[in-house]
Amino acid sequence: MYDDLLNKLANMGLTWSRRGLESHDWMKTEDTDNFHWIIDTAEAIITGYNPNEPESFPEVEPRALILLSQACMLLLRNSDGVATKDLAIMAEQIEMERGEFDLEMLLLAQGLMASGRYIDCVGYFHTKYNEGVYDESFLPDVIEVLDGLEQWFQKIISAEMEWQDDEFKDLSCLECLALMVKIARGAYLQLEMGLKIMSADQIKNYVQQFAPRAATIALHYAAIERLSKFHYTISHSFLAYSTYILVALKSIDFPMSGVLDSVNKGCMDHANDLTPEEKYFTLFAHVLRLRIFSKEQMNISGNHWEDAVNRADEALEESAKINAYETYAQIIENMKTEGRIMDLQIYADKLGRNF
């Protein structure tokens, strides 16, 4: 029934590359019939699948399932991770049942499984938050996801992995680290939002268990000599934010000037050749710099505050309007007019699901 799925997807513009989907151009057609077909097909495949019964596995190329998984994440805008996760699990299991080892496909499957599960964790965390309840399952579930990615990262860099292409190995390492940053940053965002409904013991436990894992991710990045602009800004922004949270909670004693050093690197103020997409990824650091200057009430001159505001506005104007752009625009306006983020739940939800 699905043996020709890879060709059908290709006819819609969903073609395979080392990173799964070769491009996102297929989304520009706004062909809602195709979009509905993709979601309906994904749901139909998942419905008839039992991971404990190999005979229930559909006759389908695992790469087609990976393309469907990525497409579902894009079409659902990171709002639901079930289809993404389940399709990736199925692709990996079918590959293993066949006794095959398509490294490109397996790398993508690991990332999609982690992403899908994390997105579901965030969704449930917000559901419980709206009920005034702290979701006790969130922390152990996210830690399990990150620990799984850490194990996969160690496997990627180990000598036992036989790489035919060093460039592809380096790319795979960095993509794994970027996903870990996205999830770890998101977990801190949920902590920040949840503080008002958490007990002191819950906060303490969260920090004790999570902070060492976040630090490990930062150390992995620090060990890499040369980073692309994307990885440079997200790594420094993450280091700054995770330190900022720990300082705010009085979990560590660290000068805010040190946090600002990482923030400024994440803002990449003096990089004149950033693409609109690269500019977008600096926005998290710009927001954090405004938060530090405003909330922490540091001894800065009015010129420094004005300069930070102008740079944030400039970055926003030059940014690609992707992912959580509208949320960033709203938060920067909040910081300029109110000196704080007015809706922490939107902040944690939107930026917790997207870079």
Model description:
With about 350 residues, this protein is mainly α. It has three domains: about 1-100, no CATH class; about 130-225; about 230-355, no CATH class. Helices cover about 70% and strands about 0% of the residues. The protein is globular and about 65 Å long. It has helices at about 5-10, 30-45, 60-75, 80-95, 105-130, 140-155, 165-195, 200-220, 230-250, 255-265, 275-280, 285-295, 300-320, 325-335, 345-355; strands at about 15, 20. The two termini are about 35 Å apart. The model has no long low-confidence stretch (mean pLDDT about 95). The protein is built from 15 helices and two strands. The protein has a two-stranded antiparallel sheet with strand order 1-2.
In short:
The chain folds into three domains: 1-101, no CATH class; 130-226; 229-355, no CATH class.
Task: Provide keyphrases for this structure.
mainly alpha; two-stranded antiparallel sheet; globular; 68% helix; 355 residues; 2 strands
